[in-house]
Amino acid sequence: MINLKRLKELLSVMKRIEKDGFPDESNARAYFQEKEEVLEEIGKALSDLEEGYSQEIEALKGTIKSLRGAIKDQSQTARILSPEEFYFNMGKTIAGVWMKNQQLLGELNATPNYKTESWVNPKDVHWETGKGWIGKAPLDTPMGDMSTNDQYLINPIYETRIMTDAARHSIMMNLVSNRPMAGPSLFLPQRDRGGVILSWLTSYGQEITGSKPEMGQRVELKAYTLAGFIPWYDEFEEDIYADLGRMFIEEYTESYGREFDTQCLTANATPFTGAMKATGIESHYIKSSSPYGLSYLDLREATLKVPPEERRFCSWFIHETLLSRMTSMQDTDGRPIWRGPNDSKPGSLDGYPYHECDILPQAGENLKSAPFAIFMNPKRIQHGNRKGMELKRFDGTTESLKYGEIFLRFRKRDGFLVTRPKKNMVVLRCKGGNG
Fold it and tell me: Does CATH place domain 154-192+209-435 in 3.90.1690?
């Protein structure tokens, strides 16, 4: 049960409502919706508190009522940042990290991140002019001298916008199952088909036999930290803030989007295993030693290795050079197997959607028996997203010592897990081995 002290802490956090600075309308709606849900939970908790706090409870109810009004008013007047203003604010955040400008970072709703495995929750820290960084425990107490801190989490609202941009550089990000993670790992149930047993009762009082379901194993989705380094410079004048923000976002989103697809498809246990390397996945060997020898019969035989109830949710994932071969393929009746994209729908190969992914092997590569295409339901890939994007000035490198080159380091935490690959996914391989 939530106690009275915790309720006061929550309300203290709730009083800090953003007035503007949302990258787009969807971010603004999500932000104020979250505030409404927190107030709803606080209201329910108040009704469950034991008697003896009637005066304080009434005061808290009055606070909740005023906050609801403030949220309603501000949600209607929240200002949406233009793209240029968003880039400008991101550039200012980067400059603040570089120069350790605490006030500038506080005004942009960045938060200091301690050098621990458990990252700071941005909801637990805020900046107050004249007081400095304020933490939640003890409530509203300055956190002391933070001048030596050199790593900061960016405004969570900006993080959401950046990840939206990153999805434009990724094939898989909007296709896989995305799960928020509050901790370093998440356990998921993994059942095979037939986990639920149904029984018909034909008479009153009939005993139900054999009704115990088959329990699947629990699989663990772990999150690890991904770090990247961007070569940087140390001139941060106000007139280049927008260029600074744009350059970082373009560099980050492109590299992260490609890495996301790699971990989903081709990674080989470092630290994740992609779908094409998953243990137990089905294989179909085409009758040629080169992908150029692929026929429409290979596609049909491969898809039939996936049960129909799973097959209807599957798509092909291929390299564009392989698609160029498939566009001219016909079945025995002279019908083309390829249909181009139309009306915002993906194209199809022999009736199934396909997605071009340039991290997959090209048709002209010497593949031997290595997989070069995959047919699967992308929702079988679980992506765990631990919120938080950290920036840090990083000069502890060999390049810095030798050449004076410095870097901006970014870190994010993600987890990837391929579930139920056996009999649900199939890869295409060339003849030439059983590897």
Answer: yes
